[in-house]
Fold:
Amino acid sequence: MNLPGDADFFGWVLYIAKHYGVIFLNGAGITFLLALVGTLIGCVIGLLVGVLRTLPVRRDANTFVKTLHRLLQFILAAYIEVFRGTPMIVQAMVLYYGSMQVFKVDMTPLFAGFFVVSINTGAYMAETVRGGIGSIDIGQTEGAMAIGMSHWQTMLYVILPQTLRNILPQIGNNLIINIKDTSVLNVISVTELYFSGNSAAGAFMRYFEVFFIICVIYFIMTFTCSRLLLWIEHKIDGSSYYSLVKSDMMADPSGHNPVQMGGGKTWTN
Structure:
C-alpha cells in the first residue's frame, strides 16, 4: 500500500486519489446534498420568517392581537439571534446529543445535519428577506393597498417577486458558504467530504497531500455553483438588447398595428 519514502508530492497525490477517489466523491456528494437541501429549506424558512417579521398590526386592534403580535415578533427575533450568534458546530452538538439525552430522540447524523444546516440558513435568510422587503419602495405597497389588496396579496404578487430577484446573490452566497461549513458536521459523524479526507489522512499519514485533494474538490464545487448562479441571474435579468416601439398601435386610425422592428423597419398586421 505504501509508496517508497522518496516519492514526491504529486506521486502521493495521484496514489491517494486512485485509492480513495471513490470515497472522496461519495463525501463530496453528501456535502453538496447537505448544502443544497439545507439552503433550499433554509430559504423557505427565511422567507416565511422574514414576511412574518414585516407583518403589520392595525392601530385599532384589540389588546390580545397586539400582545400576540409582540410575542410572535419576540420568538422570531430570538430564533434569529440565537442561530446567528452561535457556531454551527455547537448547534450540531447540542441538537444531536442534546435531543438524544433530553428528549430521547435518536436521530441519524445525516438527518441532524440536514436539520442544523436548514435552521441555521433560515436565520440568516430571514434577515436577508426582511432587508429585501424593506428595500422595495413603499409607494408600491401603498399602491397595492389602494386598489384593495390585502397584506398577503401585496407580498405575494408585488413585493416578494422583486425581493427574490434582489436577494438571489445572497442565496447563492449561502449555498457556497454551506458547502464549506458542512465540514463542521464531522463532529457528529456525518461522512461528508472533510470526514472522508480525515479518514484517508489518518490511514496514509499524509495530511498535506490528502487535504490538497480535498481543497481542490471544495474549490471545484464552489466555483461551479458560483458560475451557475451568475448564469441564472443573467437569465432572470433578460437580454439588454431591445428596440423601442415608436408608434402607438392602439391609436392608429387605419386599424393597422405597426410594430417597430430592429434596424428601423416596421411591419403591420
Observations:
- Confidence is low (pLDDT under 50) at residues 259-269.
- The chain has one domain: 21-238.
- DSSP finds eight helices and two strands in the chain.
- The first helix runs from residue 9 to 53.
